[in-house]
Amino acid sequence: MKKRYLFFAAVTAGLMAIYSCTKLNDKDYATIVSSQFSPTSKDVAALVGVPYTNWRTLELGRSANAIWRTNEISADETVIPARPNGWVDGGIYRRMHEHKWTADEDNSFQIWTNAFSGITNCNRLLYQLDNNLIPVTTGKDQLEAELKVLRASFYYALCDFFGNVPIITKFDVPAGYLPTQSTRAQVYAFIISELTTNIPLLSKLNDGTTYGRFNQWAANALLAKMYLNAGVYTGTPDWANCIKACDQVINSGLYSLESVQSNVFATNNSGSKEIVFAIPFDNIYTADGATAWTLHMETLEPENQATYNFQNSPWGGICAIPQFINTFDPDDNRLKANWIQGQQYTASGSVLMGTMDKFNGKPLSYVNEVPGVDSTQEVHGFRLGKYQIQNAELVGMSNDFPLFRYADILMMKAEASLRSGDAATAASLVTQVRQRDFTTNPSKATVTAAQLQANTSYDYGLRNHLSTTHESVSDIQYGRMLDELGWEFAQEGRRRQDLIRFGVFTSKSWLSHSPNGAYRTLLPIPTSAMHTNSNLKQNTGY
């Protein structure tokens, strides 16, 4: 449970109502007048917590087709296929898999709306601080710097998914204000400037006071991520600055790899030494609705309620794409630890039987087969189990979501080093990450510079009940590095971004997906936004 963070929303709702009043009456003792209010450190934490909560719905909110789901099911690792019990939902998941989405999809709407909601909340607080509506006298510069970095993180999402978006830094805009659109390169430059200017003003602490907030190291992780994708965002790579930003986090000495990867994704993972920046969740305070983290419900079949003694029946949808599973070394601990597979049992050890369609009354055993995005049975596809599922879990999970972690820092530096011609350093860093994953055969953890420059092991091509094809992978530069990213970061809502950077996202086929236009590296600006702002120009191809 993360009460210190979840306290933000309740306290701040009241405080924001106070500061939004246009007239204050000193004789009304039920009202706190700003001139009579001296915020404590807890009050300040609650205030800054408001825009942080927007990251929940932006990344993971229940039934919200936002960042995590969009990055996952549009890529080559996971799919939400049609199931005997549903998951058709108007064809949205199939369109995401086949890259046939439109500007009317919920994915575009959710990412655009939630990111700009976070930006608006940051701008509101900055306006109130600047005008002393929130009378902070100690640590004001640090607080404002944190809000600007947080605002930049929302622009990072917008830059990644939409590219060309308005840059809004003011809250007190005139009625009818329609912001103008900036280019992707301009948005990138704005984010870089905001980060490099404000990082020195942030806290250097890594403790309970900064958990789930941007300190210097979390901000450097975001900065490294921007530089890592600079070639995509601007056309000009910046590997050197990516390495420098990673080194800031590494040289802090405050973070390290967990001895077992699963510790990072445990139910109570707020103490993980590997997490650099997390989005906190709690199965009591974020139990259901838009702020809940519900992956266990989205991936397990209804029968698995008896496996974990859930209070509710799972919905059974998302699973692994078999081609991706086939890339794993059988000795890699991550294959068994992160993917739920094989015969399923009740909590007492009895064999679970299927209850739907062709597998009604037959053993419920998850197999590494998926006939296609259009049709599956309940046994098809390994299920997502990277995030610990606790006994008697509610609809919402308590696992905090690691948006940035130390393994990511090492792997960003490894990729940047590899692309800069230093394959030896890259191989050493990748080996460091792999060492915890080959406990039965430790020698396999070692990766050489030559191996890291080899082809991918992913067998690209259509692989469904209607068609089977095979595609060359010799055109994927550093394909083995892409494999390493997949094995380490599967299920973490980032695969689309990695595939784009390696030139795979719009050029290769998998399962039922065929390439459908290079412009698909960006989402369309949602129709609702286009209708409300005449200054916006739709992204190319839509």
Give an overview in words.
- The protein has 542 residues and is mainly α.
- 40% of the residues lie in helices and 5% in strands.
- The chain has helices at residues 3-19, 41-59, 67-73, 92-98, 106-130, 140-161, 184-198, 216-228, 230-234, 239-252, 295-299, 305-308, 322-325, 333-338, 406-419, 423-434, 449-452, 479-489, 495-501, 527-532, and strands at residues 78-79, 275-279, 319-320, 339-340, 342-343, 365-366, 383-384, 401-405, 461-462, 510-511.
- Helix 2 runs parallel beside helix 6, helix 7 (184-198) packs antiparallel against helix 8 (216-228) and helix 10 (239-252) runs antiparallel to helix 15.
Helical fraction: 40-55%
Q: How would you sum up the global shape?
A: globular
Distance between the termini: 43 Å
Count of extended strands? 10
Please state how the strands of the largest beta sheet are arranged side by side: 1-3
Most strands sheet? 2 strands, antiparallel
Structural class: mainly alpha
Q: DSSP helix count?
A: 20
Order of helices and strands: HHHEHHHHHHHEHHEHHEEEEEHHHEHHEH
User: What number is the mean pLDDT?
Assistant: 92
User: In angstroms, what is the radius of gyration?
Assistant: 23 Å
Primary descriptors:
40% helix; 542 residues; disordered N terminus; mainly alpha
